[in-house]
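Entry 14. Two folds queued back to back today. First construct below, sequence then structure tokens.
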Amino acid sequence: MKKRLTLIFTILAVLLLLAACSSGSAGTTAASSGSGGIFSSLWKLIAIPMGYLMRWCYLFANDVLGLPKAAYVIALFLFTLITKILMFPLSVKQQRSSAMMAAYKPMIDDINAKYKNNPEKRQQEMEKLQSEYGYNPMSGCLPLLIQFPIIFGLIEVIYSPLTYMLRLPAEFISKAKDIVLALDSTVNTRLIETSIIQHIKENAAAFSSLQGDYGKYITEVSNFNMSIGSINLWEKPQLAWSLALLVPVFSIVTMLLSQWVTMKISGQLQSGGGTNMTMMITMSVMFGVFSFMYPMGFSLYWGFQNLIIIAQSGILQKICNPEKLRAEAQAKLEEKRKARKAPKTVKIKEEDGEVIEKEIAPAELAKMRLQKARDLDKERYDE
């Protein structure tokens, strides 16, 4: 279990740091930025479908619901809801996997206690448990791994809404970028598209040279809203007293709450003791740190996801009751144990050459196979 948690934390930290590296440093300007490398290209590729989904959600909130001031926030919520619905079958699989891991726990505890002073033998027994009973400590991590591309793709969409949400021509974005750089050459490369939006809203006259060929795009950008009140969701939150601080706080609090609810419902909170509590706090602190490294739109998305997870936990408990699943998993393991201990019917060749069928216990059969192997080796070496 400790190795599993360590691996999860390592994957999480490494991937998020890779995303941070590929997104460019805070001091990089648009005038001096590079290509961003392989990870930047990967996130941009993932951002294409994420951008289409965000665009459809935004158009629904803005045009159908008629809520332009809250359209971006509603779009983030709908985006989160849709992705969680699409991943729901994986969540069911993860719930079943968690139950199976709980069933394996007594066997793992026996191995750890029996071979606590013999790490090599303990590792051999764990490998034997995996091969003979199908034990896989990482079987429930797929939903977590799939979550990473969604996060990175969404972050790219938040940074580049003109490209991925509004789907504006690259030529228009390039010309608008040149105008913004002429007004402010210190613009951060990751904020160039949101800076274009901000400058068009505040100083549309500066873009008069684009009115002829690109007038409709300027109007589209003017009407596009990525804020909620005075909070600009493309900006990173600051450790200062302001309304914007509520966004990362919302993300952290809901994460703590969602983890507590899911662990309580699954029984992990009671069975895991201090280990699970430590994991819960560590994960929340980790994402609390990351919420100040990325735009507030990311924190809002994560908070919405946590709320949906809380509701999803109740649904999963109804259709995949953890207690029932654990009982079923334990019954299957017991059947496997009995099947392994049951006598096997094998064919044996007698000294007179007659072949007979005989029931032999697994332990005795293993000894016979070992002796047969030794006899074959003896014959080979004698020759």
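Second construct, same run, same settings:
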Amino acid sequence: MSLRYLLCCPLLLLLTGCSTLSAINVSAFWPWNWFTSSVVVSDQGVGQLTATTPLSEQAIRDALPGNYRLRRGMKSVNGNIEPYYEALKEGQVMMTIEGHSGTITRITTTDSAVKTAGGVRIGTPFSTLYRRAFGHCRKENHSTTMAIVCQAEGSQHISYVFSGEWHGPQGLLPPDDSLQNWPVSQIIWQR
């Protein structure tokens, strides 16, 4: 009988939400979340983060799984100061959450545990998704590395950033044969 109490007491404390455990996301403890990511990029958003999620620390924290730490920043957009949030894992930025007028408008993820509903994740090669860039992709202008952005097939809200090496003219898309092994380096959801 006492063994039963020893096993049940820690579980009861966790479930009652005592004040020292209030910052823990209990869903992270469920066994089915141990080995799989619960974060999926869809046309609605990234996991529980959608266009209706307020751009506030508490709302974003509530929508993210417990394995992310949130950090707030500010940036200037067209002369206006706007907040953004970074979701970190082990000190690395895995998501950047941006918004306008108080709601989320864009989420960029580099987390390899996050995938699209179709199974695309960081590292997926260009050749798996596209035969050619024309009609799907554009050159990324603000990148410090060579990158192209391609619209996800059948989606108006999801795009992929592919990064790689190419030593051709600056403003042109690399040829399709050069792109074949370029991996997805970012997945972007945009309202």
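Quick look at the second one. Confidence is low (pLDDT under 50) at residues 11-37. The first strand starts at residue 40 and ends at 42.
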